[in-house]
Amino acid sequence: MNENENKQQGQLQIELPQDVAQGEYANFAIITHSSSDFVVDFARVLPGVPKAQVKSRVILAPEHAKRLLGALQENIVRYEREFGPIQIPNKESRTIAPFNVGKGEA
Q1: What is the pTM of this model?
Q2: Which residues neighbour 11 within 8 Å (Cβ) at sequence distance 6 or greater?
Q3: More confident position, 49 or 100
Q4: What pLDDT, on a 0 to 100 scale, did the predictor assign at position 29?
Q5: Residue range 69-94: average pLDDT?
Q6: Which helix (H) or strand (E) holds 81?
Q7: Any bridge partners for residue 32, and if so which?
Q8: What is the pLDDT of residue 90?
Q9: Residue 65: closest CA among 99, 28, 35, 23
Q10: pLDDT of amino acid 3
Q11: Which distant-in-sequence residues (6+ apart) come within 8 Å of 78 by Cβ?
């Protein structure tokens, strides 16, 4: 299929550069917003390290943030249908990170 045929069918081609394809692991996200943007900072929190490091920042228009929310909800439903419910600990035993940062030891 040539480029003109792709445009006619409304298909979007997406390029995934090699350095981006590796991805960044994040286990913590901070979301802020203004009247015109949502900012999502993805960070990595490690045991014994008192400072989380932001690995990626994504800035979205409010409309795209809402579309992302819908896409995440749809994909979580599909995931749970295939693999079972995702368990989230209750609020009393949950820490903000997946482990207690203050108790890291070497």
Answers
A1: 0.71
A2: none
A3: 49
A4: 94
A5: 89
A6: helix 62-83
A7: 39
A8: 77
A9: 35
A10: 57
A11: none
